[in-house]
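Hypothesis: this fold can be encoded by more than one sequence.
Test: take the structure tokens below, design a sequence, compare later.
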């Protein structure tokens, strides 16, 4: 068995602890509590704060069930943090008068451990974090595991950061492949993106690991109800899912939690959950757009909105100079040539006509690349402004930003191309919405509106006619496709460009 030493051992990266109420609910719903009473083994592969193990003891305590030595011996847990395991052992001893076996609770990384033990019941809540957001050293460690357990085809796609496959998906496949017996009950709380997302989790949704199929038997969709302490309807959707290794003809049980706390039964054939994305996306109508109109995200400052975003408090787009007030309330006079209106939610959602914010965008409109230092020297006020913030701008992270910094173009932004300066944009809110409501924008005082980072998405139009064509296509998608096929309505990932590409063809 592997020993501890993971890059995540001393962090809380991706950790979302399970409230005891819902841990107890899952233990009863799954039948794991009864199986434990009947002498079967239970393991939590990412035991964390011990929610599931301690909830088993709590249910037994409330039901006046005496916890036998065998029941104690049948409890197991793995985790990255020894401190967490020690806390679980202490709470069991102090609150329930139960001495859990220290040998059964091991500090190790389940994602990289080779197991020999098999368990009757597996339940847990693995870390919710995509491969792309893992520490660099840990990515190197895990890349072969993601391939081995059928979650991606090549290591290159992972190392390039293009994969959004969740670490939780790897934990599930490891548990099913290496920890489960043929008739084990397997239940996990998981991010909804694994089931309702786009192409990132297509491999996971094949429900196959190491050449062997397994079955999804239950899916309880909590949506974005604020059940978990870290989830306050801010865009994180989650589910409780159960699996089994044996493939049979049993029907998938699907339910959704409504705002009043009631479970609504769903018909798997109704298209209500996005497993239909994998089953049916290839059968739905494909909408056609010119290649130049591919969906894109807006300008990305690399975490320095306060430098690039602000308001205009004196002058306008037609002045030689204007007074720019950035988000840190710093006021500076700069050349107006490089200031553009920035779309905000109010402009799209509430049809506010005038700009609420602006962005400084020193990029060549012909090719979308940052202008050179020689070019920027022709605009000394803007150059001085950026030089005053040079330290912060050079500290931004990212492959593209690093390359631009090396070229001395530290004023450059991401998400900018020649498409950013096309005369028309068809823009929609890509996060937190339930329907596509695109709107056409052209210019303000002769300057092209700019879309705002990952909260918005757009298709560029070369003419009014093309913008209208794009608008018709997006409205067609809205009419003909269940919005849930795009992902999880109301979440941060819904309506992103990659989702729409599933339903588009380009010419």
């Amino acid at each position: 068995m592997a020993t501890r030493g993971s890059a995540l051992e001393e962090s809380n990266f991706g950790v979302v602890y399970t409230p005891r109420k819902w841990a107890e609910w899952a233990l009863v719903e799954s039948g794991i509590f009864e199986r434990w009473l009947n002498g079967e083994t239970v393991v939590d592969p990412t035991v964390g704060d011990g929610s599931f193990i301690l909830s088993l003891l709590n249910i037994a305590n409330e039901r006046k069930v005496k916890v036998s030595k065998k029941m104690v011996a049948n409890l197991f847990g793995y985790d990255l943090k020894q401190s967490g395991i020690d806390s679980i052992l202490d709470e069991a001893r102090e609150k329930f008068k139960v001495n859990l076996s220290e040998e059964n609770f091991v500090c190790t990384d389940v994602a990289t451990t080779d197991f020999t033990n098999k368990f009757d019941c597996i339940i847990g809540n693995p870390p919710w974090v995509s491969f792309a957001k893992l520490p660099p050293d840990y990515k190197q460690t895990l890349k072969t595991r993601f391939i081995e357990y059928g979650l991606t085809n090549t290591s290159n796609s992972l190392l390039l950061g293009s994969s959004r496959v969740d670490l939780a998906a790897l934990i599930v496949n490891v548990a099913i492949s290496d920890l489960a017996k043929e008739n084990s009950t397997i239940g996990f709380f998981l991010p909804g993106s694994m089931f309702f997302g786009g192409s990132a989790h297509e491999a996971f949704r094949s429900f196959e690991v190491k050449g062997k199929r397994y079955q999804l038997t239950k899916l309880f969709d909590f949506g974005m109800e604020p059940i978990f302490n870290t989830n306050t309807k801010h865009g994180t959707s989650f589910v409780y899912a159960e699996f089994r290794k044996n493939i049979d003809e049993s029907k998938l049980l699907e339910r959704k939690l409504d705002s009043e706390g009631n479970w609504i039964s769903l018909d798997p054939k109704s298209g209500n959950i996005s497993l239909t994305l994998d089953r049916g996306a290839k059968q739905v109508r494909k909408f056609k757009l010119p290649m130049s109109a591919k969906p894109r995200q807006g300008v990305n400052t690399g975490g320095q909105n306060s430098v690039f975003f602000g308001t205009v408090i004196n002058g306008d787009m037609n002045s030689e100079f204007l007074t720019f007030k950035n988000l840190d309330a710093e006021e500076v006079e700069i050349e107006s040539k490089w200031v553009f209106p920035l779309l905000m939610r109010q402009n799209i959602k509430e049809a506010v006509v005038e700009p609420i914010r602006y962005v400084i965008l020193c990029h060549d409109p012909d090719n979308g690349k940052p202008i050179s230092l020689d070019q920027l020297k022709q605009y000394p006020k803007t150059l001085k402004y950026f030089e005053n913030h040079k330290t912060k701008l050079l500290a931004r992270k990212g492959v593209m930003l690093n390359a631009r910094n090396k070229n001395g173009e530290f004023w450059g932004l991401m998400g900018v191309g020649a498409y950013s300066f096309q005369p028309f944009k068809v823009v929609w809110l890509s996060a937190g919405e339930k329907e596509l409501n695109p709107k056409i924008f052209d210019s303000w005082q002769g300057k092209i509106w700019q879309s705002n980072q990952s909260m918005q998405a757009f298709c560029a139009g070369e003419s009014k006619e093309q913008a209208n064509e794009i608008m018709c296509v997006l409205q067609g998608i809205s009419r003909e496709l269940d919005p849930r096929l795009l992902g999880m309505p109301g979440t941060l990932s819904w309506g992103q460009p990659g989702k729409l590409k599933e339903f588009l063809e380009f010419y």
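The domain at 20-280 is CATH 3.40.50.150 (Rossmann fold). Residues 34 and 378 are 76 Å apart (CA to CA).
Hypothesis status: open.
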